[in-house]
Design goal:
This protein is α/β, with parallel strands linked by helices. It folds into two domains: 2-55, no CATH class; 65-169, Metalloproteases ("zincins"), catalytic domain (Zincin-like, 2-Layer Sandwich), CATH 3.30.2010. The chain is built from six helices and six strands; from the N terminus they run βββαααβββααα. The two termini are 23 Å apart.
């Protein structure tokens, strides 16, 4: 766990690749947030260590960006017709901290790092973002929709964390 000072007003906790960082205002070495979230921090450390260990067993897939675009469009067509969802725009770009995002205007953005995921995980990320056009937040209804197509979604979520660490460790961003 590392403490870092920045020109910010409020402290925060950041999860970096394999390490937790306390980001504190300048000239501050301690903040109660560090004690308040001690249990959460311990849980996250354990989750990270487990993911890092699992990442050692994984292999990265390889696709070029054109293949990624074609596969995303194919999956969007398949899933959107099945669920009667309208997607206004699809973007593929480098994202810093997530596999994808969904805007309220119907735009889906995907991380270029999808290139390295196995097909099942790739499909899951696309479906995950698409379902946000039905249910914006990760509610019970949202996870129920996800589990219809991916009953193993909890395992996939854990593996995606391991892939995230592996991809970043290998400098594939």
């Amino acid at each position: 766990m590392k403490v870092e000072n920045r020109d910010i007003k409020y402290p925060r906790i950041e999860l970096r690749t394999g390490q937790l960082h306390f980001i504190l205002p300048m000239n501050m070495q301690y903040h109660p947030i560090m004690d308040k979230y001690e249990y959460w921090i311990t849980e996250k450390k354990n989750e990270i260590n487990k993911a890092l260990k699992h990442a050692e067993k994984l292999k990265l897939h390889s696709r070029n960006q054109e293949e990624v675009k074609v596969l995303i469009n194919k999956l969007i067509d398949e899933y959107s017709s099945e669920y009667s969802i309208v997607v206004n725009r699809i973007v593929l770009r480098k994202l810093i901290s997530k596999w994808g995002s969904c805007s309220s205007q119907g735009s889906l953005t995907f991380n270029k790092m999808l290139t390295y995921l196995r097909d099942h995980h790739f499909r899951y990320v696309v479906f995950h973002e698409l379902i946000h056009l039905i249910e914006r937040k990760h509610t019970h209804k949202y996870w129920s929709l996800i589990s219809e197509k991916f009953p193993d979604y909890k395992e996939i979520e854990n593996e995606l964390l391991s892939y995230w660490f592996l991809i970043n460790k290998k400098g594939k961003r």
